[in-house]
């Protein structure tokens, strides 16, 4: 196994991801936890030093234990990791003085090095730099294998010891061929690349068991991919120690509550409490049309309701959440930051402290596509794993204006027809998210020989990679025409259908 010593870079998890893509097992450990005894017990086959925000020039800045250099295994130092390695082994690191580099740079090769095999497609390669300090003299035994205009020591290596030090970040997207470096590094360290999601499952299960012991665990199950995979994994680890609470706020899609509870309780034998709180939620939302007020009401009630049900579970000590790695990065880099709230997102944040619970987050290291792979591994049906995201406040934010039961009913029916159309045309998996919003206007129409005065609705379908930016999906006119006809014919209460062609930005995906 490979050890990543984390010096606090924002992108350390991306290194782990690149390695998982190569089917190599790795663990990330913060530098504070890595000492000589740890190294001896871990017995890594290779070590990577991550980047980090500190400066090796400062006293007390993060260091690996000296013993790491005596293990006789390959070491790759990245950015701050490069500087640490140079500094520890007898080179010199200096402060900026106009040599700081942030962003795109181009590295030119010098000589040949196994680590770089197949990397340089042309005479230079794009890389991503992000450093204030720089190496001004390399350590004895090292040679230069790549330079950039601002980094004469962009790539250095001590080939006798298999120590490599690079100034840039090969793990990020903006170093387009960076994965090749990792591939060469692990090959050189003798990894065979036989580690799989199946192995991850085993490790995650062992880790959950160790963390929670015999204590009861509760989990808010929404039916979304993340909470579903987390629940299935926990169930496999601790069986009936896990109780899931499914909060039905009356803002779910057609048949959704029955489907989710049916699958987890009846099909997979999980303990699921179906908290039917429809009257409570819809009652409190009566007469409310301001989007943020709706979100706050729903978020607040959700916490109250969850707490009420959780309190009934004797001795619960842990709360399980399907937090993914991107959520972890977001909450770290934006907490207290200057970004404005566009929409207050609804989740169970704040719950653990309020209830005195400890968190179990078995998906914290994974990205969305890896969670899907794990879900498949756990045997969840493809229909669950491939589902479009659904927001916590549910249909409330697809019903601009006041929320009423009849409007929700119309919305559910229209949405079901629309999604059925998309599936029939084989488009579901091409689309990031598709749904209907019911508009707070009624318009005049004519059906048969009669006048109608019914609601208008908007269809939404977007492509996106992460929900942060999005573009509308280019349906054919035939598809749109056929879908509009079906909705108007099959859904009483709607007599006009529009298609929302706004991208994000400037729009958002949801209507509120
Ligand atoms: P927007 O509308 O902000 O949505 O462009 C981006 C993505 O986030 C989802 N979304 C939410 N998810 N709780 C959630 O769990 C929320 O409160 C929430 N609001 C929006 C939205 O469905 C889209 O995928």
From TrEMBL:
Keyword annotations: ATP-binding, Glutamine amidotransferase, GMP biosynthesis, Ligase, Nucleotide-binding, Purine biosynthesis
Reaction equations catalysed: XMP + L-glutamine + ATP + H2O = GMP + L-glutamate + AMP + diphosphate + 2 H(+)
GO molecular function, one term: ATP binding
Record InterPro entries: Class_I_gatase-like, GATASE, GMP_synth_C, GMP_synth_GATase, GMP_synthase, GMPS_ATP_PPase_dom, Rossmann-like_a/b/a_fold
Gene3D superfamilies: 3.30.300.10, 3.40.50.880, HUPs
List of catalytic residues: 79 (nucleophile), 169, 171
Enzyme class: ligase
CDD domains (UniProt xref): GATase1_GMP_Synthase, GMP_synthase_C
Name recorded for this polypeptide: GMP synthase [glutamine-hydrolyzing]
UniProt source species: Harenicola maris
């Amino acid at each position: 196994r490979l050890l990543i010593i984390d010096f606090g870079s924002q992108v350390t998890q991306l290194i782990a991801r690149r390695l998982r893509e190569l089917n190599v097992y790795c663990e990330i450990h913060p530098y504070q936890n890595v000492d000589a005894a740890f190294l001896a017990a871990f017995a890594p086959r290779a070590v990577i030093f991550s980047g980090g925000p500190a400066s090796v020039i400062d006293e007390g800045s993060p260091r690996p234990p000296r013993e790491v250099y005596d293990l006789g295994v390959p070491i790759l130092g990245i950015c701050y990791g490069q500087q640490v390695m140079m500094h520890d082994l007898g080179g010199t690191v200096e402060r900026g003085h106009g040599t700081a580099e942030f962003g795109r740079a181009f590295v030119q090769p010098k000589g040949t090095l196994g680590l770089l095999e197949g990397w340089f497609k042309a005479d230079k390669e794009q890389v991503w730099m992000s450093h204030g300090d720089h190496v001004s003299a390399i350590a004895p035994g090292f040679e230069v294998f790549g330079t950039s205009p601002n980094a004469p020591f962009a790539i250095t290596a001590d080939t006798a010891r298999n120590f490599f030090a690079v100034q840039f970040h090969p793990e990020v997207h903006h170093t387009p061929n960076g994965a090749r470096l990792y591939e060469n590094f692990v090959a050189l360290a003798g990894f065979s690349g036989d580690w799989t999601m199946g192995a991850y499952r085993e490790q995650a299960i062992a880790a959950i068991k160790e963390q929670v012991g015999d204590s009861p665990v509760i989990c808010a199950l929404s039916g979304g991919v993340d909470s579903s995979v987390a629940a299935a994994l926990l169930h496999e680890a601790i069986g009936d120690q896990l109780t899931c609470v499914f909060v039905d706020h009356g803002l779910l899609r057609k048949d959704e509550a029955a489907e989710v509870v049916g699958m987890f309780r009846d099909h997979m034998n999980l303990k699921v409490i179906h908290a039917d709180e429809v009257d409570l939620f819809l009652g409190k939302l009566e007469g409310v049309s301001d989007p943020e007020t709706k979100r706050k009401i729903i978020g607040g009630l959700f916490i109250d309701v969850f707490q009420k049900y959780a309190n009934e579970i004797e001795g619960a000590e842990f709360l399980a959440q399907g937090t993914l790695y991107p959520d972890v990065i977001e909450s770290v880099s934006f907490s207290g930051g200057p970004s404005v709230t566009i929409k207050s997102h609804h989740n169970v944040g704040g719950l653990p402290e309020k209830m005195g619970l400890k968190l179990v987050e078995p998906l914290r290291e994974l990205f969305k596509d890896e969670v899907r792979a794990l879900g498949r591994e756990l045997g969840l049906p493809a229909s669950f794993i491939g589902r479009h995201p659904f927001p916590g406040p549910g249909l409330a934010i697809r019903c601009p204006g006041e929320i009423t039961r009849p409007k929700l009913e119309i919305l559910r029916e229209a949405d079901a027809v629309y999604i059925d159309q998309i599936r029939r045309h084989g488009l579901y998996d091409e689309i990031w998210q598709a749904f209907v919003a019911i508009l707070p206007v009624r318009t005049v129409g004519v059906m048969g020989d009669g006048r109608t005065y019914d609601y208008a609705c908007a269809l939404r379908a977007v492509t996106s990679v992460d929900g942060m930016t999005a573009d509308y999906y280019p349906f054919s006119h035939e598809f749109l025409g056929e879908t509009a006809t079906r909705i108007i014919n099959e859904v009483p209460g709607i007599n006009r259908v529009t298609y929302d062609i706004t991208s994000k930005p400037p729009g958002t995906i949801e209507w509120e």
